[in-house]
Amino acid sequence: MIVFKNVSKIYHQNGRESIALDKVTFKIQPNEFVSVVGRSGAGKSTIIRLLTGEEKPSKGQVFFGSYEVDKLKSSELPEFRRNIGVVFQDFRLLEKKTAFENVSFVLEVEGVPQQEINEIVPQVLNLVGLKDKMFRLPAELSGGERQRVAIARAMINRPEVIIADEPTGNLDPLNKWEVIKLLTKINELGSTILLATHDKEIINSLGQRVITLSDGQVIKDEASGKFIV
To answer: Which Gene3D superfamilies does this entry report, sorted A to Z (predicted)?
Structure first.
């Protein structure tokens, strides 16, 4: 489903070169749960930006199914991105909209009829355990609940892949594990999960595939990996 083929990303700033990724190659199959780990600056966020088409590689190719992501035009990106749901560390919710409205907003932008929205959104919020709080504002929710709203929003289009970028970074231990359980459940329902994290405890408990980055290079790729950096 996802292929990075000899991908390098070099940034130029103030006459200096900064290598974010250096000849990175890996494949992710449909329905896998893959964690990308590494210290800050290892290249995790760069991989995400290249996969979503936010940036283009300096060298190499990025594929997502039948798409060659680095060749997509700006006008083609919105349709392509419907295949990917992204969950961020800082939630990125609209503070003046309820949980229901934050999730439904994605469908409204795409022109989905209101009747269909009214059917789909409660189902997804129920899946993440928030059906009874769908009309609460983000300020009325705990950090874990806000992250679950963000996950519901990422899932609403039934994307093939969910990218979770440090989704537990702002959460306490109890909510952290609730979010990981939810991602595992979504994976079992058929979505591919790409988890970017530096949380050693989570990685070592998952028992799933781990791609380890260091200084922009893949130094380890194990089917049932541990956090080693």
So the answer is: P-loop containing nucleotide triphosphate hydrolases
